[in-house]
Amino acid sequence: MSTKLLVKGGVAVTMDQKRRVIHDAGIAIEDGKIISVGRSDDVKGFGADEVIDARGCIVMPGLICSHTHLYGIALRGSGLNIKPPSDFLQILQRVWWPADEALTNEDAYATALAAGVESLLNGTTCYADTYSAPNAIEGSLDRIAKASNEVGIRGIISFEATERRSKKEGTRGLQENLRFIARKDKGRVMGMISLHASFTVSDDLIARGAEASRKNGVPLTIHVSEGPNDGYHNMERYGKRSVERLHDQGLLSSRSVLAHCVHLDEREVGLVSKSSASIAHNPMSNMLNAVGAAPLLEMVDQGVNVGLGNDGYVFDMFENMRAAYLLQRVARRNPNRPSPEQVVEMCTVNAARAYGLSSLGSLSKGKRADVIVVRPSFLATPYSGSVYGYIVNGVRGPDVRDVMVDGELVVRNKKATRIDVEKSEAKVLKTMGKLWGRLGSSPHDAVEPLNQGQERR
To answer: Which of 254, 267, 314, 408 is the most exposed place for a label (fewest CB within 10 A)?
Structure first.
């Protein structure tokens, strides 16, 4: 049965090729696709099954997170009994790698459920996730896919192949990606190839990962020069900088998404640009881990396609947009760059391009109807100035009112429609309590699930 929706009356930030901003917009949706974008008067004859009143709202494409670790939500607020790390490598060694080793497939499902709900409520309709659990590799992606499909969000998911413990483990990680990619019924989820970082993988695994990406026509993602250790490792072992080594191993292509890239020099940025690879910028995580500010402006100036990620830290992409906007300004002491429009592009059209998602990223005729309706809690100024400036400086995740994926209202009036959030919270908290126990962090003070009917925001 055909389903017709009409989103009417808002300010549409289309992100189409002309970057049209349409006041009193009308967006007609049928069978999960956008069939018309224009003024409200242009769609008067459209016989909608439901009309969504967007007056006073911003209507824009669903946000796309270019890089995340859904399981990162598991350590929010945890008090691990460890010696405080002094640099990024110690953060990996003392926090994340032990956590990875404690994860089970039950944790994969629970964290994907929690992060999926939070992302969707905050306006993210698609994310690119990499998962790491060296003691529970096989079948982990099925559990993440299950949670994502239950929530109704899109996902590009992968297992992070690494040889930090053994070459066999790296092969198993790559095989998990290939197994999931070959799976037929994946719902709104697709697979990709993921390698951890060049300092934990051999030339052989890099080459095999690149070949798997080419053969299967899927994206490949890898962490690159997040901290200085990556560059030191490659110079010491191979006499090359990180991107140079990846280039020489045939990894760089239009299917490649390099996460972080904080410590690239000008030549490396040039290699990324010439290869048509993309970069996933993660400013909030970079600040948290004290690794520095990426050369974002140089990337943009050299024509690199830059998407925006959260790295599993804050699952509100509006906050991540604001961080990208502010961090470069303070790092460069330049109050004019990047522009708000460039930052919004990173969460929409650029992210879609990075992962080959030609049917997403803008409100354009023929594209999938991934649409969000945003209403600030108090509208203090009109959108008639710079709506991009309003989005970057004034919008928060909790301002998202409605979310559509494939034209399905998966969030209506700030409530998820596919799942019972309170029951999901209870299930997730029970699983996280077990994980925290294994990690040596007492879960006794964990927040209890909200009572039925309790205010959420």
So the answer is: 267
Q: What is the pLDDT of residues 195-244, one digit of tens each?
A: 999 999 999 999 999 999 999 999 999 999 999 999 999 999 999 999 99
Burial of 454 (0-12, 13-18, 19+ CB in 10 A): exposed
- Entry pTM: 0.95
Q: Which amino acid is at 238?
A: Y
Distance CA 110, CA 75 (A): 13
Cβ pair 161, 173 in contact under 8 A: yes
Residue 279 has pLDDT above 50, yes or no: yes
Residue 378 near residue 112, CB atoms below 8 Å = no
End-to-end CA distance of the chain: 36
Q: How far is CA 417 from CA 247, 323, 373, 413, in A?
A: 45, 30, 15, 10
Bridge partners, 33 (sequence order): 30, 368
All structural domains of the chain, each given as residue ranges with its CATH number in brackets, are 4-62+361-416 (2.30.40.10), 69-354 (3.20.20.140)
Beta bridge partners of 60: 372
- Which stretches of 381-453 are DSSP H helices? 387-394, 421-439
> What residue type is 146 in one-letter code?
K
Per the CB < 8 A criterion, the answer to whether 130 and 160 are in contact is: yes
Main-chain dihedrals φ then ψ at residue 276, nearest 5 degrees: 65, 20
311 touches 67 (CB < 8 A): yes
The packing angle between helices 387-394 and 317-332, to 10°, is 100
Distances (CA, A) of 42 to 2, 10, 45, 53, 129: 21, 14, 8, 16, 39
Written as one letter, the residue type at 321 is M
- Residue indicated by tokens 């280039």: 247
User: What DSSP character marks residue 210?
Assistant: H
> How far apart (Å, rounded) are the C-alpha atoms in residues 289 and 307?
20
Q: How confident is the model at residue 2 (pLDDT cuts 50, 70, 90)?
A: low
Measured between alpha carbons, how far is residue 412 from residues 54, 228, 418 in Å? 12, 44, 10
Is the separation of the CB atoms in 6 and 28 below 8 Å? yes
Q: What is the pLDDT of residues 281-315, one digit of tens each?
A: 999 999 999 999 999 999 999 999 999 999 999 99
β-partners of residue 258 are: 222, 279
